[in-house]
Amino acid sequence: xxxxxxxxxxxxxxxxxxxxxxxxxxxxxxxxxxxxxxxxxxxxxxxxxxxxxxxxxxxxxxxxxxxxxxxxxxxxxxxxxxxxxxxxxxxxxxxxxxxxxxxxxxxxxxxxxxxxxxxxxxxxxxxxxxxxxxxxxxxxxxxxxxxxxxxxxxxxxxxxxxxxxxxxxxxxxxxxxxxxxxxxxxxxxxxxxxxxxxxxxxxxxxxxxxxxxxxxxxxxxxxxxxxxxxxxxxxxxxxxxxxxxxxxxxxxxxxxxxxxxxxxxxxxxxxxxxxxxxxxxxxxxxxxxxxxxxxxxxxxxx
Length: 302
Description:
The two termini are 34 Å apart. The protein is globular, with a radius of gyration of 21 Å. It is built from seven helices and twelve strands. Strand 7, helix 3 (146-162) and strand 8 form a beta-alpha-beta unit. The chain is of the alpha/beta class. The strands form three sheets. The protein has a six-stranded parallel β-sheet, with helices on both faces. It folds into two domains: 25-123, Translation factors (Elongation Factor Tu (Ef-tu), domain 3, Beta Barrel); 128-299, Rossmann fold (3-Layer(aba) Sandwich), CATH 3.40.50.80. It is a multi-pass membrane protein. It comes from Bucorvus abyssinicus.
């Protein structure tokens, strides 16, 4: 038995040593941004830190817990001179981080008062392959939208500086939320992309659909009253918020009809049940002919 145990234990110890070494490297918090509904954004810098879109890191805050490491998806783009994460305050550790960063105080916090942060990573995910396709479907469920914040930011930078070398030509973005709490911080990014594409006369580059799945009768009535307004009353975007859940079969068939003979990347960050649905639709809507349309499914779960 010991022969089978020694190998894995050696690899585990190596991994722990690497994490300890990384945790000793200095991380500087350059900015803390408080978003609505107790979501904070930490912008950080670390010497030698290099990332790709959609990657994640492990974070430890010794002021909150000396042993706990928590994974967070990076919401910044590789083109930015910092890396960032968005943290929703939903538990003891996140509440401790919120307080340690001084977010519970009204006065301005000096940088030297911010807590020490240890970072391990970044680590790769399926979202890194998004630039390998000409057409992609991005599906985020709730807070699962975070890796696509990084993707869309990077696309925005690439599009601004050298759009001719960008292989990606069309994005279909779907965001499913139970309530409006998660809209605020991400809607700003979508508004910037929307304005940028209109300025460059390429508004068709990004098609996005926001679904509010936890709606009730009063919300539906409010939606009906304001439907004719130029911008959506919830997100401030030109694309109106939809109520209920997408009809995935119709969505896949529509996209397949618009892009015949192409490979379409389907990227999901969400629950396992939604992953099963999208995987089945990707298989059933892909043609047997190698020259036909093919949906390539990629997922990461939380």
